[in-house]
C-alpha cells in the first residue's frame, strides 16, 4: 500500500497545498476501506469507495489500480485497463512491477495470453535489473502458471525453469529457501506431466516434492501438497481422490473451489458442483487462481443453475 509522505516540519507547505494533501489522504483511506470490503466479498461496496477516491484524487495510484482490479472482477476488462494504464503512468519505481503484473492479469482474464506475457516479462526484467531475484522468480512462476492453465505446456516449463534458476541467483539464499524453490519446481513438473497425460511421471514428481517437504525446512508449504495431489487426480479422471484431497486444503482459494466443482460435476453431483462454483464467486482474487476460475464459474453456473422464477 502506498504511503502518504508528509512534508518535513522544517519545510512548511503553502496553505494552498494543504487541501490537496488532505484529499489525497482521504482518498487513500477510502481505498484501504475498499480493499477490506473486497476481501470480504463485497465488491460493489468496494467499487463505490474506489470511485469516491477517484473523485477526490484522480492521480492517486492506488485508486486507479484498485478501480481497475474491481472492474476486472466484474468482467469489464476494457474499462479496467483504462484505469490500469493510468496506474502504470502514476506508479513510482517501487510500484511499477505491481502495476505491470496487475495489467497482465487483466489480459489473462480475457485469455489474451500474449499481452499478459508482455506485461509479466516487463515486470520480470525490472526485478532482475534491481537484483530482486526472489520477486523476479515469483513473477516468472506467475507467468508460467498463466501458460500452464492456458495449455501452453512448453512455455510453462520454460518459465518455471526460469523462475527456479532466477531464485537461485540470490547470493544470500538459505537452505530453506532453496528447498522452497526446489519444491515449487517439482510441483510444476507434476502438473505439467499430468497435463501431458504422463501420470507415472507426475506421481514421481509428487513424491520428490513430498520428500523435500518431509525435510521440514518449508513447513508452510505442507498445505499445498493435497492441492497438488488433487490436481493430478482430477486430470487423471480419479474424481473421488481429487475430492478427498482437495477438501483437505486448509485455506480458501477460488481455483481449488473450481477444481472441486469440476470433480463433483464429472462425478454426476450437480448440486455440489453448483455449490462450489458459487463459492468461487465469493472470493475476489485478482491473480491466476481468480483468472482461471472466475469466468469458468460464471459460465458453469449459467449452464447448471435452474432459471430463476419470474
Structure report:
This protein has 310 residues and is mainly alpha-helical. Helix 9 runs parallel beside helix 11. The chain starts with 16 loop residues before the first helix and ends in a 6-residue tail after the last helix. Among the domains are: 70 residues, Serine Threonine Protein Phosphatase 5, Tetratricopeptide repeat (Alpha Horseshoe); 76 residues, Tetratricopeptide repeat domain (Serine Threonine Protein Phosphatase 5, Tetratricopeptide repeat, Alpha Horseshoe), CATH 1.25.40.10. The N terminus is likely disordered. It has 16 helices and no strands. It is globular and about 60 Å long. 73% of the residues lie in helices and 0% in strands.
Amino acid at each position: 500500500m502506498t504511503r502518504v509522505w508528509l512534508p518535513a516540519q522544517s519545510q512548511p507547505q503553502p496553505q494552498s497545498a494543504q487541501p490537496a494533501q488532505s484529499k489525497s489522504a482521504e482518498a487513500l483511506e477510502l481505498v484501504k476501506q475498499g480493499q477490506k470490503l473486497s476481501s470480504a466479498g463485497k465488491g460493489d461496496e468496494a467499487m463505490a469507495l474506489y470511485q469516491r477516491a477517484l473523485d477526490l484524487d484522480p492521480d492517486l495510484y492506488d485508486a486507479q489500480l484498485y478501480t481497475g482490479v474491481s472492474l476486472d472482477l466484474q468482467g469489464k476488462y476494457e474499462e479496467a485497463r483504462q484505469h490500469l494504464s493510468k496506474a502504470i503512468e502514476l506508479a513510482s519505481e517501487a510500484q511499477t512491477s505491481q502495476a505491470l503484473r496487475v495489467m497482465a492479469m487483466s489480459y489473462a482474464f480475457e485469455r489474451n495470453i500474449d499481452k499478459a506475457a508482455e506485461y509479466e516479462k516487463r515486470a520480470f526484467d525490472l526485478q532482475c535489473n534491481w537484483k530482486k531475484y526472489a520477486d523476479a522468480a515469483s513473477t516468472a512462476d506467475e507467468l508460467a502458471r498463466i501458460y500452464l492453465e492456458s495449455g501452453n505446456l512448453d512455455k510453462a516449463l520454460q518459465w518455471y525453469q526460469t523462475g527456479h534458476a532466477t531464485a537461485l541467483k540470490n547470493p544470500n539464499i538459505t537452505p530453506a529457501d532453496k528447498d522452497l524453490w526446489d519444491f515449487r519446481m517439482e510441483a510444476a513438473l507434476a502438473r505439467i506431466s499430468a497435463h501431458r497425460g504422463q501420470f507415472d511421471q507426475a506421481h514421481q514428481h509428487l513424491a520428490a516434492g513430498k520428500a523435500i517437504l518431509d525435510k521440514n525446512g518449508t513447513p508452510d508449504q505442507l498445505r499445498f501438497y493435497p492441492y497438488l495431489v488433487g490436481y493430478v487426480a482430477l486430470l487423471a479422471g480419479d474424481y473421488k481422490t481429487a475430492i478427498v484431497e482437495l477438501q483437505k486444503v486448509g485455506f480458501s482459494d477460488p481455483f481449488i473451489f473450481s477444481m472441486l466443482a469440476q470433480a463433483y460435476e464429472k462425478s454426476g453431483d450437480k448440486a455440489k458442483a453448483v455449490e462450489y462454483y458459487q463459492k468461487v464467486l465469493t472470493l475476489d482474487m485478482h491473480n491466476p487462481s481468480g483468472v482461471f476460475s472466475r469466468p469458468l464459474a460464471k459460465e458453469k453456473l449459467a449452464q447448471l443453475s435452474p432459471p430463476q422464477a419470474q
